[in-house]
Write a structure and sequence with these properties.
- By secondary structure, this protein is mainly β.
- 11% of the residues lie in helices and 38% in strands.
- The chain is built from 1 helix and 8 strands, in the order ββββββββα.
- It has a 4-stranded mixed β-sheet, with no helix packed on it. A 4-stranded antiparallel β-sheet has the order 3-4-5-8.
- A hairpin with a 3-residue loop joins β6 and β7.
Length: 94
């Protein structure tokens, strides 16, 4: 099965151990030196219809991905939470 990075946005991330649903892939972190995907990012949920901003983004390291399906991605462990500002800072430093 071949897939493009753009196709990942249509896939929902689900935890393999308890079946909890985290949401749809919103972004992908890529190592530009090697061209490999480092992590999948699910944007945080809106708080009070977006008036109070968003929750923190959830970052799933590539190591936690277990299976790809037609419309879902199964991950084994919980996500790392990182706010948008933390992600921007880490990109600038790294």
């Amino acid at each position: 099965m071949k897939s493009r990075i753009a196709d990942l946005r249509c896939k929902e991330i689900i935890n393999v151990t308890d079946g909890s649903r985290f949401g749809y892939v919103g972004d992908v972190e890529v190592d530009l030196d090697t061209g490999q995907i480092c992590a999948l990012v699910v944007p945080g949920r809106l708080r009070l219809f977006g008036l109070l901003g968003r929750e923190e983004d959830r970052i799933f390291p590539w190591d936690s991905v277990r299976r790809f399906g037609e419309d879902i991605i199964l991950v084994e462990s919980g996500a790392l939470r990182a706010g948008r500002e933390e992600r921007r800072r880490s990109r600038r430093e790294g």
